[in-house]
Every structure is written in structure tokens, then in C-alpha cells.
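Input chain follows. Return C-alpha cells only.
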Amino acid sequence: MADDKDQKNQNQINIELSEEVAEGQYVNLAMIAHSNSEFVIDFIKMMPGVPKAKVKSRIIITPEHAKRLLMALKDNIDKFESHFGTITQSEEAPKFPMNFGGTIGEA
């Protein structure tokens, strides 16, 4: 029995999550590029009416980890949809009010 407990402790990973990272970043666009040895995923925040989008985070992973991420996302989407219903996708770009994020102001 002690060997099982020791084995579990050796396989356990202690993950640190800083307060800043725990707050998260809002993103609404991801761009993915790859080479023969890595995948680069840029998470971007794009606002309507603002011509410049900002990369909020860049993640660089191996092809093996990219495939693991794909499988983990699929598993989580399947669980989400079984609990909350199918996620629908629109073929058109999101619609925002004309002055959302723009320079038009009222006093």
C-alpha cells in the first residue's frame, strides 16, 4: 500500500497560478502557425471600430502537445454540449452596434 501512495505522490504535479494569470485575458481570435517542430498560437483581442488588434498571449508548443490540446478541447466541448446543448456557429462575422468601440461619443 505504501508503494501506491509513493507512486501517486511522484506522479502529482504542483501547479502554481499567480493572481495576475488567474484573472485571465479576454480574447476573441486565435491565429495558429506551425513549423516542423512547433505550433505557435497567438490569442488576440480584436475590438470593432479599432483598426489594430492586440496579441494578448502567445503559446508555443510541440506538435505532440498540440494534438493533446486538440483532444482535450474536443473532450471538454463534448462535455459542455452534453450538459448545456449544442454550441451553434454562425457563418457570418459577429455584429456590433455601429459605435461600439469607436470614437463616437455623446455628452
